[in-house]
Amino acid sequence: MVRIKRSTIAINSRQIILQFVKGFKGSYSKLFRITKGQMMKALKYSYSGRKNCKQNFKKIWVCRINAYAHIERIFYKKLNMYMKISNYLLNRKILAQLLFLDPYILKRVILYLDKNILR
């Protein structure tokens, strides 16, 4: 049986993995056997990390809106209910951005909702 050498193909496939783990510390970026396992672990955690990042941002937005709503003497839950009833299409991200850019606009939105819903 003929012996098959995979020199260029094997080197190329190793180089792809070694390029992926370029910034890792120690042997995680140098030794191929260890590198393979570390790459799999990094890819697995990056998937769940993207989901956690979205959850964290949602929590931050809710905290900011709730803090401002308390200043305006209204609860976040009530504000959310008012917005659903009046079909306002502002999501949490936009409301949180309004707080930074122009809090006066958000105050006007809350006053508008208060007047129109409580009638």
UniProtKB/TrEMBL annotation:
Q: Coiled-coil ranges per the record?
A: none
Which GO MF terms does the UniProt record name? rRNA binding; structural constituent of ribosome
**GO CC terms in record:** ribonucleoprotein complex; ribosome
Q: Which PROSITE patterns does the protein's record reference?
A: RIBOSOMAL_L20
A Gene Ontology biological process in which this protein takes part is: translation
Q: Which UniProt keywords apply?
A: Chloroplast, Plastid, Ribonucleoprotein, Ribosomal protein, RNA-binding, rRNA-binding
Q: Which residues cross the membrane?
A: none
User: What InterPro entries does this protein map onto?
Assistant: Ribosomal_bL20, RIBOSOMAL_L20_CS, Ribosomal_protein_bL20_C
PANTHER family of this UniProt entry? 39S RIBOSOMAL PROTEIN L20
Q: Which family does it belong to?
A: Belongs to the bacterial ribosomal protein bL20 family.
- Protein name, as recorded: Large ribosomal subunit protein bL20c
